[in-house]
Write a structure and sequence with these properties.
Distance between the termini: 42 Å
Structural class: alpha+beta
Strand order of the largest sheet: 2-1-3
Order of helices and strands: HHHEEHHE
Largest sheet: 3 strands, antiparallel
């Protein structure tokens, strides 16, 4: 990869850099009107993982949500097959699992 030569940029004054930035139609400063219309978009990678187990015990189906700390420790670098095998051995009667991500408030 070729390194960029910054000597041309370094030779510009702050005023010249600012003027060139304003001349770029894709790099216009935000106006108060545009700022007022903006909304916060949640970042999906900040979402908390959530695991709900579907259990069958004595012919009764129930659901059990695992605590967040247990979810994080179980999901840390394991394959789904290993994850599923561990869940079934730790929770007898487990016949299904829902893994989802919950966005922070």
């Amino acid at each position: 990869m070729k390194e960029h030569d910054w000597s041309g940029f370094d030779a510009l004054t702050d005023e010249e850099v600012h003027a060139r930035a304003l001349a770029d139609p894709d790099a216009q400063p935000l106006t108060e009107e545009r700022l007022a219309r903006m909304r916060r978009v949640p970042r999906a990678w900040n979402a908390r993982p959530r695991i709900v187990l579907k259990l069958m015990s004595s012919g009764v189906r129930t659901e059990l949500e695992l605590p967040e700390a247990e979810v994080m420790s179980r999901l840390d670098g394991v394959t789904f097959e290993k994850f599923w095998t561990e869940l079934r051995s730790d929770y007898p009667g487990c016949f299904g699992v829902t893994v989802s991500r919950e966005l922070p408030p």
